[in-house]
Amino acid sequence: MKHYLLPALATGAALFAAVSVVRTQPVREVTEPVSPPPASSFTNTVAAVGLIEASSEHISVGTALSGVVTEVLVTLNQSVRAGTPLFRLDTRALQASLAMHESQLTAARARRATAQCQVEDLDDRLQRSLKLRSSTVISEEELIRTRFALKVSQARVVEAQAEVAVAEASAAAVRTEITRSTLLAPIDATVLQLKIRAGEFATAGTHTAPLILLGNLNPLHLRVDIDEHEAWRVQPGTRAKGHVRGNASLASPLSFVRFEPFVIPKKSLTGDSIERVDTRVLQAIYRVDRTDLRLYPGQQMDVFIEVAGTSTASR
Length: 315
What we know:
It is built from 4 helices and 14 strands. By secondary structure, the protein is of the alpha+beta class. The longest helix has about 45 residues, at about 90-135.
């Protein structure tokens, strides 16, 4: 009996282990993708990936002056016309400076008027002195002094006019700064991003993130990255088709616009495990012909570009 006990226990343990292993194995069900992958409708094609962008390209609105934002005048997704105010900076210091320069301008104009009156007075005195000199009522010395006094007064008028011009230019410069404190839309566009709020400090110069991002979305353009190894196959004016990521049935014909002539390192990555990141790409700009698709700037599309056959291309 003892001879059968250990083999029976070993057999039971092995069966238990086998059942446990089978029960702990994950059950893998075959699932179908929500949307089938896109397929090209062209006989010979180059596949690429494109990013939706505004036809005007994206305009990062900055400010030439630094200051606290007092009012933001637009909202996200708002359509604006060229010249529409976008936001305003605090102008209280500039308004005070303008008041000071306008006071200086008033004083300069008063000095100019005073100098002009002196010229008129001395000119009248000189004319009367010339009449009296013929009858020897006044001396030659007094007549000469009157002439020199008139010249000095005329020079003071010129000096006063220069002071007025300087004061006017200073006041105009401050008014220009006040005008520049209100940022205007450079073109007809749509507000794509809004990264500034009332009360925040806007710094002049280059920003990592734009204060406001604008772009003309009518029509939309697609910036397609073509691998440098296949760039030679793509010709200007060739047909292309773009498929929406996640739903390949949503597609639009693409019209060629232009090539960006400078080949750049690849920056737009799709996340594919076999994707190369050490390559360079030729960027081609296409217009999205369909306007009924819900597309957004920055969205990726799968693109197929029609090309000639290898033998034809070689000839």
